[in-house]
Structures are given as structure tokens and as C-alpha cells.
Design brief:
Length: about 140
């Protein structure tokens, strides 16, 4: 007996149109348990979760300290480097070394002031541009 005829008999209705009766079968579907591979997709490694981020401030005096800065970058920490106390030729070498390190880890290096650089690994995004703000303030002080 089809569902349509059950309704007709329940409500005692007669249609003036003649429809084809179709048989409908109800299938019982048991809820499926997630497979082990599906459960593994929801698991997050505890090593990938970081509780807090750190920003390290460095004021190197010699080129040899550049490796310590690079180690912090490899450990996924942002580093602000103040090169005002380093000789000009060593400051260039430090910036070159840090540029290579940042490139290797997929990060970014930005100049944020006079001889001050911000080096960030790939897990930290920096928006905005401080250099434009600093240069505008310098122009305002000089009266340009």
C-alpha cells in the first residue's frame, strides 16, 4: 500500500484526477561513527599551538651577534634590531645576513626608523608602514 492510498483511506478523500501510485520504501539508516582517519583530521599538534608570541629587542655592537638574532627568527620570534651603535660597514653586513635569514624562513624585514629594522618570521604579519609616518614627521620638523 502506498503512502498516497494510506492518506486517502485515513482522510477518506477521493481525487478527481487519476495519479499513478508509486511505492515508497523507507530505509532504515544507522548513524555512522566517524572513522579513525576522519578523527585524526581534527587533531591539532600541540607543538603547532603557540601560547604567546614574543618580540625580541636587539642592539648589537658587533657583527658576531647577528647569528643570535637569526636564531630567534628561526624559533619564530619577531626581532627589532637597533643598529645605531654599530659601525656603518658592520651594520650593512648585519642587515645582509638578516635579509638572507628572513628570506630562507619566508619572513619579512622592514625598516621602521633610522638604522632600526623589524624582522619577522612567516607566522607574523605586519600591516602598515611606519617609514612613511617617520618621514612625514621629519619633513614637518624641517618645514618642508
Amino acid at each position: 500500500m502506498s503512502i498516497k492510498s494510506k492518506f486517502k483511506s485515513f482522510f477518506a478523500l477521493e481525487d478527481e484526477y487519476d495519479y499513478e501510485e508509486e511505492e515508497y520504501f523507507e530505509e532504515e539508516v544507522e548513524p555512522t561513527k566517524p572513522t579513525r582517519s576522519a578523527a585524526k583530521q581534527n587533531v591539532v599538534s600541540l607543538q603547532s599551538v603557540q601560547k604567546s608570541s614574543k618580540v625580541i629587542l636587539f642592539e648589537p655592537r658587533v657583527y658576531a651577534e647577528a647569528q643570535e638574532i637569526a636564531d630567534h627568527l628561526k624559533n619564530r620570534r619577531a626581532v627589532v634590531v637597533n643598529l645605531q651603535r654599530v659601525q656603518h660597514d658592520q651594520a650593512k653586513r648585519i642587515v645582509d645576513f638578516l635579509s638572507g635569514t628572513v628570506y630562507a624562513i619566508g619572513g619579512d624585514i622592514q625598516r621602521i626608523g633610522s638604522n632600526i629594522f623589524l624582522c619577522t618570521p612567516d607566522n607574523i604579519d605586519v600591516s602598515g608602514n611606519i617609514s612613511e609616518i617617520v618621514s612625514n614627521e621629519e619633513y614637518a620638523e624641517k618645514g618642508w
